[in-house]
TrEMBL record:
The keyword Hydrolase does not apply. Pfam families: I-set, Zwei_Ig_N. This is Ig-like domain-containing protein. SUPFAM superfamilies: Immunoglobulin (SSF48726). It comes from the Eukaryota. The chain crosses the membrane at residues 217-239. The keyword Lyase does not apply. InterPro entries: Ig-like_dom, Ig-like_dom_sf, Ig-like_fold, Ig_I-set, Ig_sub, Ig_sub2, Striated_Muscle_Regulatory, ZIG1/7_N.
Length: 258
């Protein structure tokens, strides 16, 4: 038994825009009872289910309650947790608990993003370039818990799967990118949960927009040229070092003969 669920007070829309004065997230807590009587806890931990990461529990002074302390939490801490208690009697008790967060755009530092000035629940990303005929993969960087349901749109028209276009949750794959696929792609993530115990469920939403364009079939040449230049420089250095060693050796042999 425990408080079952908490709401993470993390980011609003972008994980890079984190309010340092955001409120603390309530603790998840659990306890064990038998025949209506609370059982003393010997040890306890919480395990986040999706990545199996363990967290040490803080046990109350009376030894009857185990807590997972979030403090000032972030969206990536949301998820399903398993409370694992070992009673002083030796018995093991388990139970699932939840930490909710609305959909949020997760930027690991590789994206250039900005919030839309017209629609505050939309984040705009960089253009993505694909060579004509290339296999194109678009990623929807939305996180949250419950896991957001993802829908894809192109130029504000819902995308249906075809032989050439496949959708798997956060990934949209285009088999052979061409002029007809150029446009603005939007993924929208939605989830819902109650803000209060036994209260009505509320729906939350966030969207990410990226424009896909043709970047030219020869876009791979520049990286190749850079690699070839680096290899050429390495060969020149190796040859120069070898030539210098031969020169030193020749001079040494001449001095010995003299």
């Amino acid at each position: 038994m425990g408080n079952l669920a908490v709401i993470i007070h993390g980011e609003e829309l972008l994980n890079t825009e984190l309010d340092s004065d955001r409120p603390l997230t309530h603790d998840l807590w659990c306890q064990s009872s038998k025949d209506g009587e609370l059982q003393p806890i010997a040890s306890a931990r919480f395990v986040r289910v999706h990545d199996r990461k363990p967290f040490e529990a803080k046990i109350d002074d009376d030894g009857l309650k185990a807590r997972l302390i979030f403090g000032q939490a972030t969206a990536d801490q949301a998820g399903k947790y398993r409370c694992e208690i070992k009673e002083e009697s030796g018995a093991n008790v388990f139970g699932n608990m939840f930490a909710y967060h609305h959909p949020t755009i997760f930027n690991n530092g590789s994206l250039s993003t900005k919030v839309s000035e017209d629609q505050k629940k939309i984040v705009i990303g960089d253009k993505v370039k694909f060579a004509e005929g290339e296999k194109a993969i678009l990623l929807c960087p939305i996180i949250g818990y419950p896991e957001p349901d993802i829908m894809w749109w192109k130029d504000d028209i819902p995308i249906d799967e075809t032989d050439a276009i496949k959708i798997h949750k956060k990934h949209l794959t285009i088999a052979n990118f061409s002029e007809e696929h150029v446009g603005k792609y939007r993924c929208t993530g939605t989830n819902d949960f109650s803000l209060h115990v036994d209260g009505p469920a509320h729906t939350f939403e966030a969207s990410y927009v990226q424009e896909a364009v043709i970047g030219g079939a020869l876009g791979w040449i520049l990286p190749l040229i850079i690699i070839l230049i680096i290899l050429l420089l390495v060969l020149i250095i190796i040859y120069s070092c070898a030539a210098y060693r031969r020169y030193k050796a020749d001079n040494y042999n001449v001095e010995e003969r003299e």
